[in-house]
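Schema walk-through. Below, the input block comes first and the output block second. Nothing else is stored per chain. Lengths vary across the set, and this one has 451 residues.
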Amino acid sequence: MKRFIEAIAIAGIFIGLLSGCSDDKSGESGGDPYEDYEWLIPTTYPEYLTPKRVVINGESVEFTADVRDRLLAESVKPATNQLSVYVQRRGTLEDRLSGKGMTADAIDVHGPIDATDLEYLKKCVAEGELRSLDLSDADIEDNTIPEKMFFAPEYYYISGNYKVLSPPYLPLYRLVLPAELENIGYCAFANVLLTELDLPAGLKKISERSFSHNIFLGGELNVPESIEIIESLAFFESGDGTMSISIPGVVKEVFPSAFSNLCAASINIGEGVESIGGGAFGGIVSNDKSGLKVTFPNSLKSIDTGAFRGSNIAELNLPNSLKTIGPNAFRESNVVELTLPDGLIEIMECAFMDTPIETINLPASLTKVEVNAFAGLPGLKKVYSFVTNPDVFAPYGDFGEDYQTAFGNLENAGAAGSTPNDATVYVPDGCVNAYLQSVGWLWFDGNIRSM
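--- output ---
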């Protein structure tokens, strides 16, 4: 729960986004206007992406593993009543189907359609039997899925928790979009139970929250090379822990919070990506016990604020091209052994705070390490610093009990849960005295050795 709420805080504009996705209920009279709605409260990792209750066929049930399996099994059933419909004019799909759309479990659409036709297809999912929708041969107006087109229930942010209208998810399991599609609008497929999704080869823009809360989005998520924009929270809280994500190098920047709180097995960031935006993968986890696997490109220059905060990434292989690691970038992640790349210049505040790191290797290229970068590392045993100027680790504040260092507040030195002040620090030959006299290394109480 803590990670979930903090990931929301990283997004910054999250409450505003939610209000944009929902109808304004503030004008309703008398008491709490949400008092009859189901609570949707995340639990702890690895199931914190999962709601406690869902509504199935109008009945609220506990969202157990059996319920998950049942829904997944239902999602892969072959179609028993599939229709192919050919339309000649936009806005005529419902008439062409002649009422058969509500009983079909799979529909293939051919020809020109517009928002009116898409609204009808949504109705066939929400009120009928439709579970598979193939639009590969459809000519969608303006090559755009309008905002909130298949958005299911409204989410409301209240006192740090969610309340949700029922049913909580739209059971559209399979979706095939036309290759010519260019834009997917804001919240277009938010809260849809997608199990299959192939992003079109010509797609240019994935808007805010386009695929958020698709909790069964599995398999592979391949971002096409045509993409120009992936907006914040585009895939927020999606995935079942088995998904792999591939981001092409033509995407120069992974936008803030684009994949935050997603549940996946691996992330492959293609060559050419230079910056990972703030909170881009914050809270992202894998159900694999070995942790989230991330492949970083050799083009990467910066990892920004909270980019992987709260993720269960356990192994970091950072490229030598990396220059800056931003504030809170890997805070509360699962990194155990940390070897930072040659060429790294700056580590900003709290970058690796509250992690299980046992060993740290610091490259000679560092010119600035900010306060609390390595605070709250209770398992730290060894630090290998190749930095010849120990004052790179600049302390903050007035000398005394409130003195801040890269490893924490001196007042907390040796306290439970803090970075151990008896960890051994190894430094270059001839640098021991400089480290012992540097106020930034007072934390280790003189426990500094030559390599």
